């Protein structure tokens, strides 16, 4: 009799040997990277976020949703703006503490998230030190919103940056952005470069050579300051460095930071951005954080709007005018 392949409940039996059928079961409404989103999906999220600032300010989900925030790294803005968005939308929110959980006993990330799914949580927000941690979670069926993975991706920060830029210029086409600082350790830089370029903007990088990556298109800072519509500063991520930085904070500010002299050479319409937390007096002179050109605290406000839009997307909810 000829050998044949038969399907048995998701397993392949071939000549007496079973092979697991690999299926992608991750929820399609998860937001893990910017590259997974089409331009149309990005713009829809931005328009929803903008609506939350005006016409849909009091809108809530159709029913309370049980959501867990799993932060394996310290966070202020991302963590609590997600929590603010969740509460404003009527979610029931639980904050996970890694220090008091079974991860201290050796439980894997997959088993931790699978546990939340099994006990009735309808979505999870995760920040983790590991790059692309979500590749371990392919069998999780509830939506996962990535709040930052290692040095890899930070879609919610990218979306709030895009919203801030769009509010200012009403387009991304030919908008010139220079990202300055610790690029190689920055998930913000990676996500923003991909998304802004795809939407028609132009992105350059500036900073010390040891913070750049081979693929970066760089520009000297003093040239970039006069060229850019958006000057986006990055924090030096000391916690991700194998060795301490050789130069002092004062030296870094003078060579690679935003000083008063450099602000005076920015284009009249240009804006200052920073994902925060800000190291005042390092990547930016302290009193420039709230300069008229600065949108740093506006970015934080936009973070709540964007994360509300992400939750709306995750639960496939609609505004009344979309029904």
Q: Overview of this structure, please?
A:
The protein is an alpha/beta fold and 323 residues long. The protein folds into 2 domains: 39-155 and 302-317, Aspartate/ornithine carbamoyltransferase (Rossmann fold, 3-Layer(aba) Sandwich); 157-295, Aspartate/ornithine carbamoyltransferase (Rossmann fold, 3-Layer(aba) Sandwich), CATH 3.40.50. The protein is built from 9 helices and 11 strands. Strands 5-4-6-7 form a 4-stranded parallel sheet, with helices on both faces. Helix 2 (77-88) links the parallel strand 4 (66-71) and strand 5 (92-96). Helix 1 crosses helix 9 and helix 2 crosses helix 9. The longest helix is centred in the last third of the chain and has 19 residues, at 296-314. The protein is globular.
Sheet with most strands: strand arrangement: 5-4-6-7
Question: Which segments are poorly predicted (pLDDT under 50) over 5 or more consecutive residues?
Answer: 1-23, 239-244
Radius of gyration: 22 Å
CATH fold naming of the largest domain = Rossmann fold
What does the average pLDDT come to? 90
Helix content class: 25-40%
| Highest CATH level, the class of the largest domain | Alpha Beta
Order of helices and strands: EEEHEHEHEEHEHEHEHHEH
Give me the secondary-structure category: alpha/beta
Work out the helix count: 9
CATH architecture of the largest domain: 3-Layer(aba) Sandwich
What is the number of independent domains?
Answer: 2
Count of β-strands: 11
Distance between the termini: 57 Å
Outline type: globular
CATH superfamily descriptor of the largest domain = Aspartate/ornithine carbamoyltransferase
Q: Biggest sheet, open or closed, and with what strands and sense?
A: 4 strands, parallel
Strand content: 15-25%
